[in-house]
Amino acid sequence: METGVKILSTRAMREVERIAIEELGVPGIVLMENAALGVVDAALAEVPEAESAVVFCGPGNNGGDGLAIARHMVVRGLQVVAVVATGGREYSGDAKVQFEIARKMGGMGLELRVLDANFEAAEELESAVADAGADLVIDALFGTGLSRPLGRPFADLVRAINALELPTIAVDLPSGLDADRPDFPGPHITADLTVTFAALKLAHVFPPASEAVGSVVIADLGIPMDLVEQADGDLYLLGGGDLAPLLGPRPLAAHKGDFGHLLLVAGGSGKSGAAVLAARAAVRAGAGLVTAAVPASILDAFEAASIETMSVALSTSPGGELGEPALELLEREAEGKQAVAVGPGLGSARGTAEVVRAFCLGVELPLVLDADGLNAFAGRIEALAGRARPTVLTPHPGELARLLGVATADIVEDRLGSVRRAARQSGSIVILKGHLTLIADPEGGVYVNPTGNPGMATGGSGDVLTGLIAALLAQGLEPLAAAQLGTFVHGMAGDSAAVAVGERSLAAGDLLGFVPSSFEALARWGDPGAAGAGFEANK
């Protein structure tokens, strides 16, 4: 299942362009013109009052894009200075064609300034901006073609551009960033808007690099999107437009049995709230019936707080551990259910962990495993690959570290590699929670969730996610679709809650109140009047 906007490597994007030019016969100059038009449209939508601009054109095709942009801005009525900073190199190919056109347009509203190899950035910049009276900057120095830190004089130039404090539009990628890295290699442009072409690149999405790109617009190059979809790569940014079709209308004659019966195994001494949050989230996600199996010691508290659900009591030892009687009860309760969720607040006592492992490996239902359910498989992640039915794991970095037997720092340092490894070893869908939550499938695909905010970093937020995904599984969604939809809506609810109460004061229970409106907004995603019908890709 390919859902979302594809994120391509520089190598893969170059191959897409090569196929378009060499195999389809689309001239490179046409791609350059289309790119330029896309940037001009986006730039003038971002700064509609702009009357003049300075376009910084570097060596290579990114500079050629910049020269074409300068020309089209003149056609739109702007006064433009194109500052050519090639470090002494001469243009070739399509970029040379653009340079010659720009040179011949002198006196037609376009001024061309060619800097020598050893230009003094501050002086040249001050002169160009002063002469243009610029109210807009276009960065077409390097784009995605850079793979090493900028040295002088270009490093000085990007610092000087940043110091202008003018609206800055980057072409493809802010100069100084590496498209295939999420960090800052060195000095770089900080853009207000980045216009990239055909597909996102890793630096557009992942921080801290994404913090320098501003808003992101994906412009049309005039090539078939099939080329992008078939390109090498298995990384995607989730989008509401792809998920909305999963939320069709319910049949008029529907009854509760049509929407699945979920078994939730959760809660423990001092943690009844985890079971309550997961159960109530499952109800809000549309499960027809929810039965919660909770330790007898918290049954009364659970029933008082979760009035829409049913419950059964799990016997425990004097120390609060689950044992064989609890396992037998769970096996009976699983009969007739459509999905099961295990883990929130259960505790990690030895007896409880043994019951969790035995139940999860034996139950033939789609399973969501969270919190202490995950901890029961610490160092034993491969055991989950033997399950007969689909499994969804929802770890935070510490839980994933325990599953894989590594340090949490290792997970944080390589989130993409870690989530792929976990999905492959467990044969499961793995959701690595955090900023830009990652969803990996066992075949290697990874989907990046753009919704959510730091206010959701609070106890109980993950329990809500467990309930959402488990309810979607119970309703018959495929595991990957349930994971994607549940995670996306979870973040939407968190974003709405943050607007209502602020990130600092956001509590997990606040999410429940915004789950319904989030589902409704997502269902109407294609409607221009729908709330929440768009978002910035890098945020």
How would you summarize this macromolecular structure in one to three sentences?
By secondary structure, this protein is of the alpha/beta class.
Class from secondary-structure proportions: alpha/beta
Overall radius of gyration: 27 Å
Find the CATH topology of the largest domain: UDP-N-acetylmuramoyl-L-alanine:D-glutamate ligase
Helix content: 40-55%
Low-confidence stretches: 528-539
**The CATH homologous superfamily of the largest domain:** Ribokinase
Number of distinct beta strands: 19
Count of helical segments?
Answer: 20
Please report the first level of CATH classification, the CATH class of the largest domain: Alpha Beta
Architecture of the largest domain, according to CATH?
Answer: 3-Layer(aba) Sandwich
Q: Any idea what the shape is?
A: elongated
The total number of structural domains is 2
What is the arithmetic mean of pLDDT?
93
Q: Approximately what portion of the residues adopt beta-strand conformation?
A: 15-25%
